[in-house]
Design goal:
This protein has 209 residues and is of the alpha/beta class. 57% of the residues lie in helices and 13% in strands. The longest helix has 25 residues, at 60-84. The structure holds thymidine-5'-phosphate.
Length: 209
């Protein structure tokens, strides 16, 4: 999809450090930056996020439909207008998360996910994705050590989170140019420097091409 902005996404298992990195990246990329997250980002999508994360039980199909609804609103109301205005958009999770969480974790057919993602995004794909890769037991321990209460998904078994990681690694393997794999066990400053260097390089390239 043609636009004049630059679209960066951050992905990873629970506790991989995406939230810290998205804010640190935004701080160095200047004023023309929109920082957002999925599910969420708009008032309606944030309402869907609450339902998604706090329901006691949820079928795989319901998960997929809620995520897609939140994404459709997010893309239309916030992400695309920003990209069309030439902004850099940094989004914490996007379509790859649906492949990892609803595809690999919940077992929904990957072709169907591709179709639903396409409907929700209108074909919008990130210009670059940073996958912060981490063994899920380490990420979950980080979550347990923090003050934040655990969400519905964070309460799931280690086996479930291992499927998520495997899904993300499969995405990285299938799109090695777009998806930059980063070892999330490195220290936060090193990760930040890697992300900043790669983002600046690609933003510059996109402006000259
Ligand atoms: P967050 O805590 O990183 O903001 O993510 C919220 C949760 O939503 C996280 O457990 C992953 C889940 N999720 C999906 O299951 N599918 C998706 O497509 C997205 C974007 C998030």
């Amino acid at each position: 999809m043609e636009h004049t902005g630059f679209f960066i996404t951050l992905e990873g298992v629970e506790g991989a450090g995406k939230t810290t990195q998205r804010h640190r990246l935004a701080d160095v990329l200047g004023d023309n930056v929109l920082v957002t997250r999925e599910p969420g980002g708009t008032p309606l999508s944030e309402q869907i996020r609450d339902i998604f994360l706090t329901a006691s039980t949820m079928s795989a199909t319901t998960e997929l439909m809620l995520i897609a609804a939140a994404r459709a609103q997010h893309v239309t109301e916030l992400i695309l207008p920003a990209l069309n205005a030439g902004q850099i958009v940094i989004c914490d999770r996007f379509s790859d998360a649906t492949i990892a969480y609803q595809g690999y974790r919940k077992g929904i057919d990957l072709k169907l996910i591709e179709q639903v993602n396409h409907i929700a995004t209108g074909g919008l794909t990130p210009d670059v994705t940073f996958l912060l890769d981490l063994p899920p037991d380490i990420g979950l321990q980080r979550k347990r050590d923090s003050d934040e209460p655990l969400t519905r998904l964070e309460h799931e078994t280690l086996a479930s989170h291992k499927k998520v990681r495997a899904g993300y690694l499969a995405v990285a393997e299938s799109e090695p140019h777009r998806v930059q794999l980063i070892n999330a066990q490195l220290d936060a400053d090193t990760i930040h420097n890697l992300i900043v260097t790669e983002s600046k390089k690609r933003i510059q390239l996109s402006q000259t091409s």
